[in-house]
Amino acid sequence: MIIILFGPPGAGKGTQASALCEAYGVPQVATGDIFRAHLKNNTPLGQLARSFMNNGQLVPDEVVWKLVESRLSEPDCAGGVLLDGFPRTVVQAELMLSWVKESGLALSQVLALVVPDEELVERLAGRRTCLDCQASYHVQYNPPTVEGVCDRCGSHRVVQREDDSEETVRKRIATYHRETAPVLDFFKARGLATEVDGLGEIGDVAARLRQALQG
Ligand code: ADP
Ligand code: AMP
C-alpha cells in the first residue's frame, strides 16, 4: 500500500504521519527529513540541497527522484510506504506513478490536507523540530511535555528550523502554489486524491485522515 500525504508546508503532514504509519504498518519516507539528515552530515547532497531549502525553493527533480527511487527499493518499503513531502512537482508525480506501475504495488490514496495560507504561516512560525528524530512540535498548539525536550526520543535539541523564518516560509508557500498545487489537480484528474480538512485539533484531523483512507 502506498499512501501519499500531500499538502502545503505546515499543513500537518509530519505531525500526522507516525500514527498513520503505525496503523497501516508502513514506513514513513519524508524527503525533507532525508535532506535534513544529509545537511546534518554535511554530505555533498546536503550541500547541494541547502541553498534550495534555505531559499524556499525545491530541490531539482532529478536529484529528488534518484533519492526517492533508491529509498523505495530498500527492503522495508517492499510492502508499501507513506510518502510525506513527495511528490512536489508534476514531473515527480509522473515518475512516481510509472514506478508504482512497475512495482506492482497499489497507490491507495493521495490524502491532501487543506489549510489556508495564514494558518500555515502561524503554524510554521511556532514550529519546533527535533534535530535528532525530526519530531515536529508547536510552541502553543503542540508543545513537548518538557520544554525543549523531545517526547519521542528524549533529545534536548528541539529547535526552530532554519527555513521556518517568516521570510522563507512566505517563499515556500509561494513555491507550493506555483509548483506543487498542480500535483493535486494531476491526482484529482485520475480519481486518486481525497481532500481532508486540516484545521482543528490534531486528533480530529487524524480521525478524518483515517476515515478518508477507509473510504
Ligand atoms: P508539515 O509536515 O506538513 O510541514 P508539520 O506536521 O510539521 O507540517 O506541522 C506544522 C506545524 O503545525 C507544527 O508546529 C505542528 O505542531 C503544527 N500543527 C500540526 N497540526 C496542527 C493542527 N491540527 N492544529 C494546530 N497546529 C498544528
Ligand atoms: P519539508 O521538510 O517537506 O518542508 O521540506 C523541506 C525542504 O526540502 C523543501 O522546502 C524543499 O527545499 C526540499 N524538499 C523536500 N521534499 C522535496 C521534493 N519532493 N522536491 C523538491 N524539494 C523537496
Key attributes of the depicted protein:
5-stranded parallel sheet, 8 strands, alpha/beta, globular, 8 helices, 3-stranded antiparallel sheet, 215 residues, single chain, binds adenosine monophosphate, Rossmann fold, binds adenosine-5'-diphosphate
Written account of the structure:
The protein is of the alpha/beta class and about 220 residues long. It has one domain: 3-Layer(aba) Sandwich (Rossmann fold), CATH 3.40.50. The protein has eight helices and eight strands. The protein has helices at about 15-25, 30-40, 45-55, 60-70, 90-105, 115-125, 165-190, 200-215; strands at about 1-5, 30, 80-85, 105-115, 125-130, 135-140, 160, 195. The strands form two sheets. The protein has a five-stranded parallel β-sheet, sandwiched between helices. It has a three-stranded antiparallel β-sheet with strand order 6-5-7. Strand 5 and strand 6 form a beta hairpin. Helix 4 runs parallel beside helix 5 and helix 6 (about 115-125) packs across helix 7. The structure holds adenosine-5'-diphosphate and adenosine monophosphate. Adenosine-5'-diphosphate binds near residues 9, 10, 12, 137 and 202.
Question: Layout of helices and strands, plus pairs?
Answer:
Layout: E1 2-6, H1 13-24, E2 28-30, H2 31-40, H3 44-53, H4 61-72, E3 81-84, H5 90-103, E4 107-114, H6 117-125, E5 127-130, E6 136-138, E7 158-159, H7 166-189, E8 193-197, H8 202-214
Parallel strand pairs: 1-3, 1-4, 2-3, 4-8
Antiparallel strand pairs: 5-6, 5-7
Provide a compact summary of the structure:
Helices cover about 50% and strands about 15% of the residues.
